[in-house]
Amino acid sequence: MSVTSKASPERAEQRPDRGRLRTGTLGTADITFFVVSAAAPLTVMAGVAPIAIVLGGIGAPAGYLIAGITLAVFAVGFTTMSRHVRSGGAFYAYITQGLGKPVGIGAALLAVVGYNGMEIGVYGLLGTATADTAHALWGLDIPWLPVSLAGLVLIWYGGYRSIDFGAKVLGVLLVAETGILVLLAGGVLLKGGAGGLSLASLAPGNVLVPGTAAVLAFAFLAFTGFESTVIYRREARDPGRTIPRATYIAVCFLGLFYAFIVWTVIQAFGDERVVKAASDDAGGLFFSAIATYVGGWAADLMHILIVTSILASLLAFHNAINRYSLALAEEGILPKALARIHPRHGSPYLAGAAQAVLGLAVVLAFALAGADPYTQLLLWVNTPGGIGLMALQLLAALAIPVYFRRVSHNEGVVRTVVAPVTAAVLLTAAIGLVVAKIDLFTGASTTVNTVLVALVPGVFVLGVLLALRLRRSRPEVYARFAEEPTESQP
Where is the composition biased (Basic and acidic residues) (predicted)? Predict the structure, then answer.
């Protein structure tokens, strides 16, 4: 599968020799690589799915299907609006067009904080996962901080290079991490599982249990980043088609793949024994399964691929953050310097450098405070980031029907009203589940959890106040915010 295309004479003028993004570079597969890599399928499965099995029992696969269906419904209205709003700002541009500038600027600040939270916290996971891998494979004990700092440099460099370079890297890493999971599934299916294959995971009696609510909370966060397809609009080939296709492929793939892999792991241990196996050794469940059904070498390879899965997720989020920062710098909200684009690579390189410096500051602050890289740096930083992105999805879903009621269009009522309203209801329930089960994600005290949850509305309100200040002090910036990049569907 090719991730780049040869430059044609017609496209030569679009090359970034004058500091422009590489327009017309990314195809459907490329964008899909970015958004699926951000979700880190192998890390989510090996690191989180066993906990979902402990909480939800053998009905856990259904939770991923339900989350996937909900987000597919959201994608209907989301991709429809992508044909009408051309901004690289995605969420904030859509929300502004539907709900107004104060809400849109509040959403913009929440997006910057949310995406940074989802990325920076993962540097803690990179450090611990690499240390675990080194110990498991070679008996080495290495500190987490140097690994995290080395990861910061690697990710900065990946973002500094051209977008097609990033697409190639993510394509290779994504194929590798999904491939090892497919290998596990194939081994289980070929050997018939622990006692024959069973579809009991889909039986209503196993799905409709109290623990399913907790599974759903984990499942929704497992899709984080899928909506970033729209951020790459300016670099996409035929964005009117490429963006919707990539969004639907990402959501459908993740939903079906997650459910299938969790189901196969349940078959690996058997319906009667898998919950106990996951309870006894959640972190080792997938490694034990692949060692049994494929071989010890595959378990060793999975250890290594978890590290590369984390790196792929970091690079995908880093690129998304850079383009959000670029869009906001062009709007006049962030410093203009962040809008500079590398004359050769066509990348928002100063936005990438600023993001790397921010990541460095946060990682070092946690390290100097003696914080645990997993339970504190990862979980405390990631959790509000994930909730923030879900809140943005909800705001976007609410904005879509309002927008289409105001403009002339030929879109159907299902796409412009029914789907987004349904998605808004489902996303409200999903956010409620995540907040209610927040202790499962953080393992922190009630006070810490309250602060982490409160950060999301707090950042949004701060953004609204910034908007009101802009309206008074910089009316020209306020007036043009998210206004120009719009178009009407004929």
Answer: 8-20
